[in-house]
Amino acid sequence: MKATSGESASVVRWPPAPSPGGVIGLIAIIFCLFFAILAALSLAGDTSVALPRIVALALVIIFVMLAGAFGFLLYGYATMRYELTADQLTIRWASTQHDIPIGAVHEIVPAVERLDPNPPGWQRFWPGYYVGEQATLSGLVTIVATLRPRRQLLLVTRDYQFAISPERPVLFLEAFAQLRCALQEASPDRADEWQPAVLTARFVEAGWTTPYPAARPTKVVAETTTVGDDSVRAVAAGSSAALPRLWSDPIASGLLIAALVIDIALTLFIFVRYNSFPQSLAIHWSSSGVADRFAPTRQIWSIPLITWLVTIANIAFAWFVDAFDRFAARFLLAASLFVEFAALIALYWLIH
After folding, report:
1. Could you give the CA distance from residue 230 to residue 274 in angstroms, rounded to a whole number?
2. Rounded Cα–Cα distance for residues 267 and 57 (Å)
3. Contact between 149 and 117 (Cβ < 8 Å)
4. Does residue 192 contact residue 174 with C-beta atoms inside 8 Å?
5. How many CB atoms lie under 10 A from the CB of residue 52?
6. Residue 49 has what pLDDT?
7. Closest CA relative to residue 211, chosen from 147, 163, 127
8. How far is CA 248 from the centre of its chain?
9. What pLDDT is attached to residue 242?
10. Where are the domains of the chain?
11. Closest CA relative to residue 333, chosen from 351, 349, 318, 348
12. CA–CA–CA angle 301, 303, 308 (5° rounding)
């Protein structure tokens, strides 16, 4: 299904509702990379666990491929959005795009009325991230959402059905209804059904206002589109990216900058002073304080590697968590500093 927007049409982009789907995908990537690194170290003979070379190589390949697959899915999660123009709704996910003419939508209903809230089997991809198809009595439904069916909107056309979960769905419904009325394609006996108040009333009766007590955006972006001689105003909730939100918080941005500066300084220090380090490093001491286990100097690079991994992971976690809890985002960034201070102490003991 495809529709062409007029050149004067303005695009109103709606992000999907926040969910833990991004965090879960990021954790999966970190775990895959962690095990890939362990397998690579075993392949190089730098660990106490000696795996057969063919097994270690196979594990490196498998976990790197898994990390790449999860990376693509995380990219799809980050690019998921819904775009409204004067005559078309576009659903985007990764490189996939569904163009739905607004005039072709017969109705919008709560998805749970037709979708099984607890479908049997595996529902792609994981909690907080749903992309796929589900068979129903009314036909096949294409799902591109971040929330469960109880919080999805179902758009019904003659040939297709789409389940989505836009951020602030009540405002999305109001904007869609305004555009639908402007097209004047609804039959006279159904004209009232596309009035914003009438369309949203069905969802309000179903309890949709409970999670959205204010039902108003923190920032409103108004886009004017021209349809024939009429102008219609589509209102959407402005939603900036999570990382800019972190930058706008002085405490979070300060913690983030401090963590990055320490990581960079630690890496540069080891790089500049590497040739002056001892040939072997003591990594364990007996109860009497005598070093009884040593490691080659190159293993000192594991210290900045760990701090960088922790910092990047915590920044990514804070990126997603900030939409739910600012204190938690700050805590994650502060935790990176604690890890870095511990790494600095460990480095001091190793080289002295």
Report:
1. 71
2. 28
3. yes
4. no
5. 10
6. 56
7. 147
8. 19
9. 47
10. 80-237, 240-352
11. 318
12. 100
Q: CA–CA separation, 76 vs 96, rounded Å?
A: 9
Location of structure tokens 């890939």: 36
**Distance, CA of 227 to CA of 218 (rounded, Å):** 28
Q: Using an 8 Å Cβ cutoff, are 100 and 90 in contact?
A: yes
SS (H, E, C) 259-292: HHHHHHHHHHHHHHHHHHCCCEEEEEECCCCCEE
Cβ–Cβ < 8 Å for 153, 202: no
- Cis omega before residue 125 (within 30°)? yes
- Which residue carries 């709560």 as its tokens? 110
81-84 vs 107-110, strand pairing mode: unpaired
CA distance linking residue 237 with residue 222, whole number of Å = 9
Neighbours of 236 (CB within 10 A): 26
Q: Nearest-5° angle of CA 186, CA 191, CA 194?
A: 85
pLDDT at 72: 92
Looking up tokens 């179903």, which residue turns up? Answer: 206
**Amino acid sitting at position 53:** R
Residues in the chain, pLDDT under 70:
1-9, 45-51, 120-122, 184-246, 282-293, 323-325, 352
Containing 156, the helix (H) or strand (E) segment is strand 153-156
Backbone angle region of 69, left / alpha / beta, with phi > 0 → left and psi within -120 to 50 → alpha: alpha
How many C-alpha atoms does 63 have within 13 Å on its Cβ side?
19
**Mutual angle of helices 302-321 and 326-351, in 10-degree steps:** 180
Contact 338, 44 (CB under 8 A): no
Q: Whole-prediction pTM value?
A: 0.59
- Residues 117/267, Cβ–Cβ less than 8 Å: no
The three-state secondary structure class of 3 is coil
Phi and psi dihedrals of 348, rounded to 5? -60, -45
Instruction: Report how far residue 82's alpha carbon sits from residue 102's, in angstroms, rounded to the nearest whole number.
Output: 13
